[in-house]
Design a protein that fits this description.
This protein is α/β, with parallel strands linked by helices. The protein has a domain of 180 residues: Rossmann fold (3-Layer(aba) Sandwich), CATH 3.40.50.300. Helices cover 43% and strands 23% of the residues. The strands form three sheets. A six-stranded antiparallel β-sheet has the order 2-1-4-5-6-7, covered by helices on one side. Strands 8-12-13-3-14-15 form a six-stranded mixed β-sheet. It has a three-stranded antiparallel β-sheet with strand order 9-10-11. α3 packs parallel to α9 and α4 packs across α5. The two termini are 30 Å apart.
Length: 373
């Protein structure tokens, strides 16, 4: 899979920019010039959302009312063009091959990405919601039916929570809960099963990558920790989910929120058998995050037959020299299309990989020689 072209108009600090890419792409420049904005734009085309803000208006260049992004994507099957237009105060408009899409989710998976940045360590040291978000994004990019099931679950959860609030405020009867519990249970079981299966597939690859990055000194562990025990028997799983919902209904009404279901699940990450969130050092947490990202690339490749593109934001300053060298060796062996931001070009890291390099300054990216000092 390759992103061959990116066009930005009034996006962040870019007035207008068009870039054509190769296999290995470097964005070079001082801080706060717009390097990360280019990675964010690629991620936005892939996921229809930013990793830095939930407000689309913030993506539009200051003083402008509209912004626009487009990208050309090639995989083993077809060449597609993705477009996203933003207008202040309005819902964003997306197009695929020139046709308006009513559902943003139609774009998910067309451009598969793995993103690593300093804030990615939240997967390890953050809360359960960070790990669920990581897992849901990973699976959704490969399995469209999972994304649709997750959306059904979230809608049922939202409706049940609203019913709980109305019951608490004596504006509805308890009978209203039954309408939302059936879709909540059915979609929740599917979500939990898929998450658990993917965690089992990720585990051996994560162990391998952690050993590679630490030269055999550390072992990584990963385990899906469900809020409701779901097995392969549909009837038993349904009965357990119903039992837990019934047992918690009084407290759920009091709080106005549902305490049972996959939205409360976690993914346990370990280093040498210990909880990485509580006991791993910052260096170990960064290494484990990187091992997860390498496992993510491997899983996407195996599950979809396509290598995702890899976005690396300031990775050379985040990792020590050994981890950085090992990372680039691993990428060189695959190799996926790579986009990297850096403050300087270091040929000793990039080796013989062909590179397209741009100097980024004040929202403008100009080509430079890849072997420039």
């Amino acid at each position: 899979m390759q992103l061959t072209e990116l066009v930005l108009v009034n996006y962040r600090n870019y007035a207008e920019q068009s870039l054509e890419f190769g296999a290995f792409n470097l964005f070079v420049g001082a801080n706060a010039q717009g390097k990360t904005n280019l990675l964010e734009a690629i991620l936005f085309l892939a996921t229809t959302r930013s990793h830095r803000t939930s407000t689309d208006d913030e993506l539009i260049r200051q003083g402008e009312q509209t912004g626009y992004l487009s990208g050309s994507v090639e995989d083993s099957i077809a060449r597609r063009r993705i477009e996203v237009g933003n207008t202040r105060g309005r819902r964003k408009q997306v197009k695929l091959d020139g046709k308006i899409q009513n559902r943003l989710s139609n774009l998910i998976g067309l451009l598969k990405v793995v993103f690593f940045a300093p804030e990615s360590t939240a997967i390890v040291k953050g809360g359960p919601d960070d790990r669920r978000r990581f897992l849901d994004s990973l699976i959704s990019q490969v399995h469209g039916e999972y994304l649709r099931g997750l959306q059904r679950y979230r809608r049922a959860l939202q409706q049940r929570n609203e019913s709980l609030k109305q019951i608490r405020d004596r504006r509805a009867s308890r009978d209203t809960l039954q309408a939302w519990e059936e879709p909540l249970i059915a979609s929740g079981i599917d979500v939990a099963r898929r998450r658990r299966a993917v965690c089992e597939e990720l585990r051996p690859v994560l162990l391998q990558q952690q050993q590679y990055l630490t030269e055999g000194c550390e072992e990584a562990g990963l385990r899906y920790a469900p809020n409701v025990l779901i097995n392969e028997d549909d009837e038993e799983s349904r009965e357990e989910f119903e039992r837990r919902l019934t047992a918690s209904v009084e407290s759920d009404i009091a709080r106005g929120t549902t305490s049972v279901g996959p939205h409360r699940d976690d993914v346990e990450l370990m280093v040498d058998g210990l909880d990485a969130r509580r006991f791993a050092s910052q260096g170990q947490q960064r290494t484990l995050t990187l091992a997860l990202k390498l496992a993510e690339i491997d899983w996407m490749h195996r599950a979809s037959g396509e290598l995702p593109i890899v976005l690396l934001d300031d990775v050379t300053s985040e990792l020590d020299e050994l981890r950085t060298r090992l990372l680039f060796e691993a990428l060189h062996a695959l190799p996926p299309q790579v986009f990297l931001t850096t403050t300087r070009i270091d040929p000793t890291l990039f080796g013989e990989m062909p590179a397209h390099a741009w100097e980024v300054r004040a929202g403008t990216a100009n080509p430079v020689e890849a072997d420039a000092a």
